[in-house]
Amino acid sequence: MKSVLSIAIFTLFFLAGCASLPSLELLPMVDIEPAKCQRPWVTEKRQFVHAIAATLPDGKKTLITGVTTIDPEERSLHVVIMTIEGLVLFEGRAKGDKVEIQRGISLFSSGAFAEGLMNDVRLIFLKPATVPTEVGIARGFDVVCRYQDDISGVVDVKIGRGGDWELARYDSANRLQRRVIARSGSDSERGAVPERIKLTAEGTFGYSLDMQLIQ
């Protein structure tokens, strides 16, 4: 239990890494299908259950279960985190920039933890509320769509061949904060959630969440 709760400690604090916003080889917007930029995100209300292997900044690992309900039309989230035995550690909702904690045990009741968690979930599942500001190409990817993020940063959406995609979020100083990698397979469609997604928080207090889809 101690190792599980320690996830909350390290998600409260974040020091950005040294990686910076890369330049793009720009492409004409008219040459890009709008749907391609939106490939990673769900397009209708969905619920997912993931087995999550969390790696903490000190290298320790723990297993938790996450149940996530996403409504892209309302831009709302409902997130439940449980131990593998079924004990609910956290339950919360977010709509827009408002976060409501419905249940939290110990450090999971922290407002800072809830806000950080919801920002990570938004990054993975919800398309930014804006349209791309730039579209280009990068090594190993068919297209990169650059968005102004909902929390005053930049999100790069990198679409690869065969349905693979990556996300990278940078802060207002163009420093890398989060990286999300998904390997989907050749039959992936827009809005489909890959069986495995890995989120990495960069920096001194970095951590990772390796999410395996259960249903």
Commentary on this structure:
The protein has 3 helices and 13 strands. The chain has 215 residues and is mostly beta strands. The radius of gyration is 17 Å and the shape is globular. It has a single domain (2-213), classed as Clam (outer membrane lipoprotein receptor (LolB), chain A), CATH 2.50.20. Mean pLDDT is 82; it is low at 2-18 and 185-191. Helix 1 (2-12) packs across helix 3. It has helices at residues 2-12, 34-37, 111-125, and strands at 25-26, 46-55, 61-71, 76-83, 88-95, 98-104, 134-138, 141-148, 154-159, 165-170, 176-182, 196-201, 207-213.
Low-confidence stretches are 2-18, 185-191
How many helices? The count is 3
Which band does the percent of strand residues land in?
Answer: 35-45%
CATH class: Mainly Beta
- Morphology call: globular
- Compute the number of strand runs: 13
Arithmetic mean pLDDT: 82
CATH architecture: Clam
CATH topology: outer membrane lipoprotein receptor (LolB), chain A
Order of strands in the sheet with most strands: 1-7-8-9-10-11-12-13-2-3-4-5-6
Structural class: mainly beta
Helix-strand topology string: HEHEEEEEHEEEEEEE
